[in-house]
Design brief:
Blueprint lengths: L11 H17 L4 E7 L9 E4 L5 H7 L7 H4 L7 E3 L2 H4 L3 H9 L4 E8 L4 E8 L6 H23 L2 H7 L5 H11 L4 H8 L3 H15 L4 H13 L1
Antiparallel strand pairs: 1-2, 1-5, 3-4, 4-5
Length: 229
C-alpha cells in the first residue's frame, strides 16, 4: 500500500459534498471528528484520497511522524471488513500514535474498514469525551457502513479515479472515442481509421469496460476530460 497523502479529489464539488456529509453525520451521531481514507491497490486507479475534520495540525503531525506505517487501522485494510473501537490495546505497538492522538483530542473513536469496487477504504469517527460502549458500537456500525459506502461511491465516480482509468486504453480505443466525440458515427469512424465498423464497435465496447463507463457517451466524456487535464 502506498503512503497516504493529503491529496484530495480533483473534483472540488465532490470533495465538499463528501466532507460535508461526513462531518454533519458524524456530529449527528455524537462524534466531533471524522476521517476518510480510500486507496486502490492498483496504481492505475490514482492516488490515495484523504478527507478529514481532525484538529488543525494533526494530519501534518501524523505524516511527519510517519504514523501510517504503524497505524493498526491502515494495516488492517487488506484483510478485514469490520468496525473496530479504538483502545490502547488495539493500538498495541503504536503507543506513540495513541498517546499523540489522545493529546490532540482524538481520545475515543472507532474505524469502519471496508472493501469496495476499486480498492479499500476506512471511515473513522472520533471525539474528545465519552468512550464508545458496546451498545453504541452496534448502533453506530450500520450508520458508519452506510456513510463509508456513500463516500466510496462519490470517490469512485470522481475525476481522480475515472480519468486515471483512461490511461489503460489502447491508442486505437482512444482514437475511436475521440472521433466519436467529434460527432462521427461508427461508419464514419471506420472509414477514417481504415477499419471495419465491427472493429470500431469492438473498440468502443472494450473502452466502456476498461473505463467502467455506463455507456459510450460516458466513456467519451471521461476521455475528453482527461485530454483537457
Amino acid at each position: 500500500m502506498n503512503t497516504p497523502t493529503s491529496e484530495l479529489m480533483s473534483d472540488s464539488r465532490s470533495q465538499q459534498t463528501v466532507a460535508g456529509l461526513l462531518e454533519r453525520s458524524a456530529k449527528t451521531i455524537g462524534f466531533d471528528f471524522f476521517s476518510f481514507f480510500w486507496q486502490s491497490p492498483n496504481s492505475n486507479y490514482g492516488r490515495p484520497v484523504v478527507l478529514d475534520s481532525y484538529p488543525s495540525g494533526w494530519m501534518s503531525h501524523y505524516q511527519d511522524r510517519q504514523y501510517y506505517r504503524v497505524d493498526p487501522v491502515l494495516r488492517s485494510l487488506p484483510r478485514t471488513n469490520r468496525i473496530r473501537v479504538w483502545s490502547e490495546e488495539y493500538f498495541g505497538v503504536a503507543k506513540p500514535l495513541w498517546r499523540d492522538a489522545q493529546d490532540a483530542g482524538l481520545k475515543f473513536g472507532l474505524s469502519q474498514t471496508m472493501w469496495c469496487r476499486y480498492g479499500v477504504a476506512v471511515l473513522s469517527l472520533a471525539r474528545e469525551c465519552e468512550g464508545v460502549c458496546a451498545a453504541e458500537q452496534q448502533s453506530v456500525s450500520m450508520t458508519a457502513m452506510w456513510l463509508a459506502n456513500r463516500a466510496v461511491q462519490q470517490v469512485e465516480q470522481s475525476d481522480l479515479v475515472t480519468q486515471t482509468r483512461a490511461h489503460k486504453l489502447s491508442q486505437r480505443e482512444k482514437e475511436v472515442l475521440r472521433w466519436t466525440a467529434d460527432g462521427k458515427n461508427g461508419g464514419e469512424v471506420a472509414k477514417l481509421l481504415g477499419i471495419s465498423r465491427r472493429t470500431v464497435e469492438f473498440h468502443v465496447k472494450n473502452a466502456i469496460e476498461k473505463l467502467h463507463a455506463s455507456n459510450k457517451a460516458h466513456a467519451v466524456s471521461i476521455v475528453m476530460q482527461t485530454n483537457r487535464g
